[in-house]
Amino acid sequence: MRFQSPYYNVSVLPENFCHPKARLYDLTPTPLARVFSMTLSIKAKLALSFTLLTTFIVAIGVISLKEMAVLKDRNDKIVHEDFQALRDLDELAIIQERIQNLMRDYVMIDKGPLHDQIEHELEALEHEEKELIKTSYGHAAAKEVAVLDKFVALRTQLEAVNAEVIALFKEGKLEEAALKLVTEGGKFDKAILKLIHDFSEEESIILEEEVQRSEQEYNLAWFELMGIIIGALVFSLLVGFSMVRSISRGLNSAKTLSKQVADGNLTATVDNRRKDEIGELLTDLNRMVADLRRTVGDVTSSASNVAAGAIQISATSNQLQEVSITQAAATEEASASVEEIAASISSTADNAHQTEALAHEAAEMARNSGHAVNEATKHMDSIVEKIQVVQEIARQTDLLALNAAVEAARAGEHGRGFAVVASEVRKLAERSQEAAAEINTLTSVTVESSQTAMTMMDELVPSISNTSKLVSNISTSNSEITKGIEQIGIVVGQVDCSTQTNTAASEELSVTAEELASQARVLRDAISVFDLGEAGQADSPAPSAKAPTAPSAPVAAAPAPATAAPQSSTGISLDLGDDADEVDFTPANSKAA
């Protein structure tokens, strides 16, 4: 037997479709199954599957509840209608039998207190029987009502017989009472028993029919439930197999791709047309492989560039080392020259101090000379005044000599000697006058020279003072120059230290560059396990071993101020993962002093 489910074409054994050992084969997915497995998400598949399974379970529950309700109604009908009527008649028959037994006891014993007790029990049983009859009428069907009517009619007649028996017994007619009880009472008693027996037979047949009908309904409900359960089980197996097959195929594709990537093949991808979470996973894996292929290609290219850069850094560090050595030698020479300049400046400063002292002494002597020239000029004025007096005396003497000569000439021979004396006196007066004129002239020249010397002294003193100040400024400048030279010496020493540090750093940089080149080779070898295809291999050039061209002459850098902060440069931190065999490259920060 072959049928087609919504998801698979299924073939089963034709003998018993519901047989639990029926073989299933030819499970080929239908187009609906392919759409179900490729289009819907796993969440939607699970939701749909559990919804359908819940529908099956609800259907099973509804049908079970419905059939249970039908069976309950039928059992209630059997118990509360059919069986209840039979039980009521059976109880009525028991009560009636007890009444008839009490009537026989009543007739058989002698008169006494027991008769009153029997009469009370008879009244109680008759009352109970009436209540039971009334109750039976309340829930009896039409057929049970007819039987109850017959029972009531027979009971009424039997009560009349029992009443007559009691009356005959009380009248003392014991034999008649016993005979009436046995004959007439027995006839009605048998009629009641027959009525109840016939009704019981009919009800037993009806009960058997109801039981058979209940069994048939139970069997029908059982088969319906079993069919639904088997259908739900088959559906669950098919849906579960479909989902497991769909998920396993997607996971196998992801596993295959992951294995290929783990083996280093970055050219592999998965043909994915699914729209569910597995499809999203495969899409993400494809994108991850593409990104990883691009990243590995970039890393390979970067490793090549790092190797080439490391070679260039090594050559540059060697050149920097040579320049640093040359700079160190030049720095030592500059330091010696600075020391010589400092010694010369120190000697110049001492000479400047001595010159300053001499300038102060010369200024003081010039001031004293000025005062002396000023005093001499004043004395010259006094001398000029005195010479003018002498000239006046000589003029007057010359006049007196002239008068004496005139008088001697008048005297003749007697005044010849006086004339000679007057002549000599006149000559002396003339000579005194000439000498006084020369002295006056010399004195005037001397005064002019003194005034000129005084003017020059007045001009010389400020010049000497200015010279002293200039010498003092020169001394101060020499002191500042000395401090500057000392600072230059310190800076030169720092430059020397920096040069030595740069030399050591150049050596470290050369070693670091070699280590970086080695790490780049290790990185390239580590990445070489990945297959990037032709495009990926073309994108990763080999590192160039060509060293950078050395500059024709070192570039002189301006010396940094003494207070400048040192510059720091940070290198590259390269970490390729948690491999135990890797060597992480993290160069230390190099600081310039």
UniProtKB/TrEMBL annotation:
<dbReference type="InterPro" id="IPR003660">
    <property type="entry name" value="HAMP_dom"/>
</dbReference>
<dbReference type="GO" id="GO:0006935">
    <property type="term" value="P:chemotaxis"/>
</dbReference>
<comment type="similarity">
    <text>Belongs to the methyl-accepting chemotaxis (MCP) protein family.</text>
</comment>
<dbReference type="GO" id="GO:0005886">
    <property type="term" value="C:plasma membrane"/>
</dbReference>
<keyword id="KW-0807">Transducer</keyword>
<keyword id="KW-0472">Membrane</keyword>
<dbReference type="InterPro" id="IPR051310">
    <property type="entry name" value="MCP_chemotaxis"/>
</dbReference>
<keyword id="KW-0145">Chemotaxis</keyword>
<keyword id="KW-1133">Transmembrane helix</keyword>
<dbReference type="Pfam" id="PF12729">
    <property type="entry name" value="4HB_MCP_1"/>
</dbReference>
<feature type="transmembrane region" description="Helical">
    <location>
        <begin position="46"/>
        <end position="65"/>
    </location>
</feature>
<dbReference type="InterPro" id="IPR004089">
    <property type="entry name" value="MCPsignal_dom"/>
</dbReference>
<dbReference type="GO" id="GO:0007165">
    <property type="term" value="P:signal transduction"/>
</dbReference>
<feature type="region of interest" description="Disordered">
    <location>
        <begin position="535"/>
        <end position="593"/>
    </location>
</feature>
<feature type="domain" description="Methyl-accepting transducer">
    <location>
        <begin position="302"/>
        <end position="517"/>
    </location>
</feature>
<keyword id="KW-0675">Receptor</keyword>
<dbReference type="InterPro" id="IPR024478">
    <property type="entry name" value="HlyB_4HB_MCP"/>
</dbReference>
<dbReference type="Pfam" id="PF00672">
    <property type="entry name" value="HAMP"/>
</dbReference>
<protein>
    <submittedName>
        <fullName>Serine chemoreceptor protein</fullName>
    </submittedName>
</protein>
<feature type="transmembrane region" description="Helical">
    <location>
        <begin position="222"/>
        <end position="244"/>
    </location>
</feature>
<dbReference type="Pfam" id="PF00015">
    <property type="entry name" value="MCPsignal"/>
</dbReference>
<feature type="compositionally biased region" description="Low complexity">
    <location>
        <begin position="538"/>
        <end position="570"/>
    </location>
</feature>
<dbReference type="GO" id="GO:0004888">
    <property type="term" value="F:transmembrane signaling receptor activity"/>
</dbReference>
<feature type="domain" description="HAMP">
    <location>
        <begin position="245"/>
        <end position="297"/>
    </location>
</feature>
<keyword id="KW-0812">Transmembrane</keyword>
